[in-house]
Amino acid sequence: MTAAALKHLSAVDPVMKKLIAEVGSCKLEHEPWRSPFQSLVQAVAHQQLNGTAANTILTRFKKLFPQRRFPKPEDLASVTDEQIRACGFSFSKIAAIRDIAVKTLDGTIPSSRQIEKLTDEEIIERLTAARGVGRWTVEMLLIFQLGRKDVLPVDDFGVRNGFRLAYKKREMPKPKALLAFGKKWRPHGTTAAWYLWRAADAAKLAARKKK
Length: 211
Fold this sequence. Notes:
The protein is an all-alpha fold. The protein has 2 domains: about 5-30 and about 150-205, Orthogonal Bundle (Endonuclease Iii, domain 2); about 35-145, Hypothetical protein, domain 2 (Endonuclease III, domain 1, Orthogonal Bundle). The chain has 12 helices and no strands.
């Protein structure tokens, strides 16, 4: 993220200015080599699981397709639900993955080339048509795959908790209220979200040290 983002956030918000000074430069990186299909399958794997467990499941899943680094949507026709279940996916997640594959093949979910030409809201509308894919999941794709600069995931627990801590609020902000507050950060909502995540992380670290 650019120096312009840090300059803007520091100018419009004294709390964000202080947070930027404490954390340092933004180290957010995105991974443009992943296809939308891969990003969504990985996101489904991570739902309601910690990162280690999800990555273990994904490693087993990829071994079902030894000819690929990551399977393509058409490859799923070659494996059974039982084989995918043996990797650790629940049946509801298997149904989601198969629907993501179908909607990739029929064009509802765009290709890597097509998705670059769409707006954030167009991408959210297209991808949330797939089973098991909500707005938050697509927002993570916008941030970490596509590197979109103005995404503020107000439903994200870490973002909301980071806001509560940095702005010394007693209660978690409602998503709608956080979205309204975040208008001042535009067009650099993604960078603001990254700093709110760091505020939440710092609080976790401090709590661990007290134990």
